[in-house]
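Key result, reporting period 2: structure in, sequence out.
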């Protein structure tokens, strides 16, 4: 293959990968629509990238995330990573969600990228049951 053909193939592979992520996301939304409030879909979709990692069980812990001595934390059962409880109001970049200004409560574990203006991590979104929906994201 020529260099140009390799670049075209790489680009086509990337497009296919992104299309598959979108299909997986729509499938997850369809499967979870009865147990996850719609405002959380708008919240997650306001990030640059996102993907569903399924339902998880959590356990609350007295351990604390560095810098948040009073914050409520949890762990996914069987894992060590801490997630900090977060409360905020939905505010999307374009302001076009019918849930703008509605209260959100979720757990988050977030890391800042090398340049400091990008970040990524996981959110644990409550369901109508006892489980949480784990979603990875980046901005």
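The corresponding designed sequence is given below.
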């Amino acid at each position: 293959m020529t260099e140009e053909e390799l670049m075209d193939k790489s680009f086509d592979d990337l497009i296919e990968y992104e299309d598959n992520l979108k299909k997986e996301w729509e499938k997850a939304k369809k499967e979870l629509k009865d147990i996850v409030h719609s405002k959380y879909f708008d919240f997650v979709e306001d990030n640059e990238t996102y993907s569903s990692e399924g339902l998880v069980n959590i356990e609350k812990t007295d351990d604390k995330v560095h810098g948040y001595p009073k914050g409520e934390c949890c762990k996914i059962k069987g894992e060590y990573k801490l997630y900090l409880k977060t409360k905020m109001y939905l505010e999307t970049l374009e302001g076009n969600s019918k849930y703008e200004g509605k209260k959100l409560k979720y757990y988050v574990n977030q890391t800042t990228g090398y340049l400091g203006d990008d970040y990524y991590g996981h959110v644990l979104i409550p369901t109508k049951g006892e489980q949480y929906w784990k979603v990875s994201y980046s901005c």
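The first strand starts at residue 49 and ends at 56. The chain has two helices and seven strands. This case is discussed further under Risks and Mitigation.
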